[in-house]
Structures are given as C-alpha cells and as structure tokens.
Specification:
By secondary structure, the protein is α+β, with helices and mostly antiparallel strands. 26% of the residues lie in helices and 33% in strands. Strand 15, helix 7 (295-302) and strand 16 (306-314) form a beta-alpha-beta unit.
Length: 323
C-alpha cells in the first residue's frame, strides 16, 4: 500500500491525466453529496460512458464517478467514490494505490460502497462482485482489495469504467428488498443473471501478471457480448466465469485465464472439473486462454474433455477471440 505523501501526489496526478485522456466534454453540474447539491467541475467521456470529478479536501482526495452523461439542469447522483488520504493510509477510505515488488502501481478499492439506501455496503459488494480480489499489505496487516486498474496498462480507462459500471449494477440489486442475496434462480436453482467482472510468457513477469488481473473482467464481458449477440442466455456465479443456459440447465461453462503460465492453466482445469461435477448431464467445458499455448499442451487439455478458446489483443485495445 502506497502511503508516502509525495508519491500519492504523483500517482493522483497520473490517475487524473489518464482519465483526462478519455475526456469528451467538461461541464459544471450539480452533484449530490451528503444531503447537499454541489456545483462542481465534471469531466465526461462518451467512450467510457462515465463522468468524474476530482476534488482535494483537507484530509483526502475525493474522487467521485457516475454513469452516463451528467444532467445539466438536474442533480446528479454519485455511483461510487475512489477516495484516499492525502498522506499515509486511512482504512476508513475505500480507495488507494498498491505497488508490487517491481514498482507497478494498481488503483484499488476495498469494496465499501455507499449510496444512502438500506442494504448498500461492503456485504452487498462482496456477495455480488466476482472480479479479482487481491491481498494488499500495509505495515503488518493484510487486507483484501479489488484491483481497479493498472497504471502500466493502455486499457486503464476501460478498467476504471468497468468498475464504475459494475458498482452501478450492484447497487441496483438493493432496490429489490425481497432479494437480499445475488442469487436469481429458475426451476433447477441455476443462477440466471450475469455479474460483470471488475479482466503468455511461460514464466509470467510480475508486471504482466498485475496488468492481466485488471483485464479479466474486460475479457469475460466481451465474450458475454458475443454470446448474447448469438441469442444465447448467459450468466455467471462465484464458481464459474460464464455459462450458457439452455432448457433449464447449464449447457456450456467457460473459465477465462489471463496468462498461459502453468499455475493459471492448472487452476482453470481444476475449476472446470471440480465445480461442474454436480451437473447431470455434464456441461460442455471451455478453457479460454491467450494465444500461444503449445499444441502438446492443448492435446493434454483436450484429453480431459476440455475445449480451448484462444483470444488476443489487437492494437492493445480490441479483443479478438479465435472462434
């Protein structure tokens, strides 16, 4: 966890600039905050479909985000805040910066979300968010955080936008007081809703692994879009990144990995084999990996009745699945 004041100032400046790279329009609009309406300078990106405002308070950087284009003549509600201390580390603030051993920095969030409605909080987040969660150390304490975006990634803006849209989706769940949990079932108890997920080298470098952590949700959501365009009914849950539902049963299960290292492959195989033994008939199982896996390794995976779906980034922005 980054706590040095000068480093926080530097990283905050980079964070702000990276978001401004996606700027479409800057405007003054009213933002609702703690029962008040504040007229603030707000940035909007049509590409990311989010707005944001960065304000410096006496003890913190107050960074607020919302979905869609801000309303000019009405009050705008904050979807989520990614706040952190001006210096040191304050556990009461949800945001922060974490650095790995190689110095790569990732914007993180604890999952404590507010919203003024009953039921919105960290429990709602952890019950519904199935993106990556990583351990972060501060002094002698280790806590779990959601990695939002890697400062080394050209897709940083998209990673931040995905997190904001995901918080918006999770907060919508609290409106149904009759459904306190995230499980939406049909006849056989299969969850039928999709939760977006805040997204090789044979021995993957730490920097590349950290960037990939933040790409996981982008990859899953893109393939979800492809399947829905084909008319498929898709969903996911804590044990499965994505699955197709047909005739009240899970027909196909997908597990997505962002690296081709052995640990990622072994984990993906184990998740597919163990988490889907309960289904009869057994679903089709697909392991999705970056291009570059050896043909010998592919044959071994196929021998376990697991298909392989490869993908690659084109121009570092467009995701292509080799279907």
């Amino acid at each position: 966890m980054v706590s040095d004041e000068k480093e926080i100032v530097r990283l905050h400046s980079i964070f702000s600039q990276k978001m401004e790279n996606h700027l479409t329009e800057r405007m003054n609009v009213y933002i609702g905050y703690k029962g008040e309406n504040k007229l603030l300078d707000v940035s909007y990106s049509s590409e990311l479909n989010i707005w944001w405002t960065f304000q410096k308070l006496s003890d913190r950087h107050w960074n607020s985000f919302g979905v869609g284009m801000p309303l000019r003549k009405s009050n705008n509600s904050i979807t989520c805040e990614i706040n952190y201390s001006i210096q040191g580390f304050n556990t009461s603030l949800a945001g922060g910066f974490a650095a790995n051993e190689e110095g790569e920095v990732i914007l993180i969030h604890s999952g404590r979300i507010g919203g003024g409605r009953k039921g919105i909080g960290k429990t709602l987040f952890t019950d519904n968010y199935i993106g990556e969660i990583v351990p972060v150390k501060f002094k002698n304490n280790v806590s779990e955080y959601a990695p939002i975006g890697s400062f080394d990634s050209v897709r940083f803006g998209s990673q931040v936008a995905l997190f904001v849209h995901e918080i918006s989706r999770i907060k919508e769940l609290s409106k149904n007081i009759h459904t306190p949990s995230r499980v939406d079932t049909i006849k056989n108890g299969i969850k039928t809703t999709f939760n977006k997920e805040f997204a090789g080298e044979k021995e993957v470098k730490q920097r590349e692994r950290s960037i990939a952590i933040c790409d996981h949700g982008l990859i899953v959501n893109e393939y979800k879009r492809i399947l829905e365009q084909k008319g498929e009914i898709v969903a996911n849950d804590r044990e499965r990144d994505l699955y197709i539902i047909s005739k009240d049963r899970i027909k196909t299960v997908f597990e997505f990995k962002t690296n081709n290292d052995r640990q990622s492959i072994y984990t993906g195989i184990g998740q597919l084999l163990l988490n889907n033994r309960i289904f009869n008939p057994a679903p089709r199982m697909v392991l999705s990996l970056p291009v570059g896996l050896s043909e010998d390794f592919k044959r071994v995976i196929n021998s376990l009745a697991i298909e392989i779906l490869e993908y690659q980034w084109k121009n570092n922005k467009t995701l292509e699945f080799l279907i």
